[in-house]
Write a structure and sequence with these properties.
The protein has about 110 residues and is an all-beta fold. It has no helices and 11 strands. The radius of gyration is 13 Å and the shape is globular.
Length: about 110
């Protein structure tokens, strides 16, 4: 079992940046990929970005490509989501997941225009 805890969310103005963190604990040696999702009020949870641990290959949803960067720090068991040029459509609760099995409780990001 892997436990995930997200942090770094907050209230920011449009055009600002934030860095979200996803810290893993437990049986992290069996983690092969971590994915960030987000869920806006009244909408379904949607894919944001993923990173594969085997080769650090990354994938992004078109809506965040070029603005968001996913990265990881093995020594800290942490995956980051660097978010730049935030806009109101990025407002959501952001979740991280490993293998789509383990999930954190989310961190709220609110972007004011």
């Amino acid at each position: 079992q892997v436990q995930l805890v997200e942090s770094g969310g907050g209230l920011v103005q449009a055009g600002s940046s934030l860095r979200l963190s996803c810290v893993a604990s437990g049986r992290t040696s069996r983690t092969y990929a971590v994915t960030w999702f987000r869920q806006a009020p009244g909408k379904e949870r949607e894919f944001v970005a993923t990173i594969r641990f085997s080769n650090d290959q990354t994938y992004y949803d078109d809506s965040v490509e070029g603005r968001f960067t996913i990265s990881r720090d093995n020594a800290k068991n942490t995956v980051y989501l660097h978010m730049n040029s935030l806009n109101s459509e990025d407002t959501a609760v952001y979740y991280c997941s490993s293998e789509l099995v383990n999930w954190g409780r989310g961190t709220q990001v609110t972007v004011s225009s």
